[in-house]
Amino acid sequence: MQTAATDSSVPRGLSVAALYAATIAVYADMYITQPILPVLSREFGVAPASAGLSVSAVVLAIAVASPSSGPLSDVLGRKRVMVWSCALLALPTLLCALAASFGQLLAFRALQGLCIPGLTAVAVAHIGDRYPIHMLGALVGGWIAATVAGGLTGRVLSGLITDLYGWRAAFICFAVLTLFCALAMASLLPRDPARPTPGWASAFRGMATHLRDRRLAGAYLIGGTLFFGFLGIYTYLPYYLSAPPFNLPLTMVALAYLTYLAGVIVSPMVGRLSARIPRQTLIGVGLLVAMIGVLGTLPPALPLIGLSLLVLCTGMFTAQAVAPAYVNATAREAKGGASALYMMSYYVGGTLGAVLPGLAWQRAGWPGVSGVCLAAFGVALLANLTLCRERRGPAPGGA
What are the CA-CA distances from residue 328 to residues 129, 140, 333, 341 (Å)? Predict the structure, then answer.
């Protein structure tokens, strides 16, 4: 594996900052519509579960495109794929602002999702290629923190911008930010290392090998169910908080996403802890904490709900901070493909998590949403127990 740092002309800190900034922009684009679903429901005359499709359309497209993004980066190079992905993403983001119907909005959101995996499914493999192995845990933890910051940025700023200038203005702002970050990556990321270029057949054979690996298959199941539960809670949170007995305005609902700050703080810390504590143990602890957080949102008390959302984010990002690094360290070859499969399963789970809890909301309200999401976390916990039986002691490949 290539472990050289960055090009000598660019300090390592700048190249890492460029990658993290682009990650923030991409994840912000992904979640622009989540806090403004009630606004979209009113403007386009669609039900809550249908409005949730503006989230799941992106997530499903990411899941569809992720399997090819890893092998594409194995063949063409990580930097090239990430830069072009980010640059192309700016276009459908801008087009969303021009959507004349809900169907058009969904189509443009799906186009966004097709562009996103070029970064999300490749970034961890890029870190593994271009930085020393002993930095893997800390840098991946930092990258996860950037994904959290991106989700927070998209959710909070889109709500605030929508309140002030309308939802179309939010898409325009994020399109400009995304294009700027693509240019920054083009200038500051290290060049891809010179190495033999694998053929497409070889790259996809490596992915088939990953699916036969029990440890990796378990990690993929964890990723999907983890994101199902988390996205289910946060997608339908605006409906919960804007309905009686809370009746919160959109700006206050958007501020509820500030609980994401827990993930920004926790992810780098957990990444460093993975050097001393097995990753499977950290994943299990994170899942249990997340389940406690979901339970705490059931009583209709705003202070308790806010605290419980912090607990949920802490648990979620404890698990998510180490799961991608576990995949990267466990895969012996075609690491881009291994990371892509994880992201595919993660976003397949998110696709379902943006829709199925909506059906539970329509039938049983917030207790229904919470119950479905708790069940998903329970499946992840069972999968993690299998991983724990597989490996005792330090995580593979260090941290």
Answer: 10, 10, 9, 11
What's the pLDDT at 131?
Answer: 79
In tens, the pLDDT along 148-196 reads 889 889 988 998 899 899 999 999 999 999 999 999 999 999 887 766 5
Residue 262 Cα distances to 56, 139, 267, 316, angstroms: 24, 18, 8, 10
H-assigned helices in 166-278: 167-188, 200-212, 214-242, 250-255, 261-273
Region label for 395, one of left (φ > 0), alpha (ψ between -120 and 50) or beta (otherwise): beta
Q: Are 191 and 79 in contact (CB under 8 A)?
A: yes
Q: Which residues contact 8 (CB under 8 A, 6 or more apart)?
A: none
Q: How far apart are the two ends of the chain, measured CA to CA in Å?
A: 15
Report residue 290 as tokens: 């997340």
Specify the fold of 12-390: Growth Hormone; Chain: A; (1.20.1250)
Contact 362, 52 (CB under 8 A): no
* pLDDT beyond 60 at 1: no
Three-state DSSP at 268 gives: helix
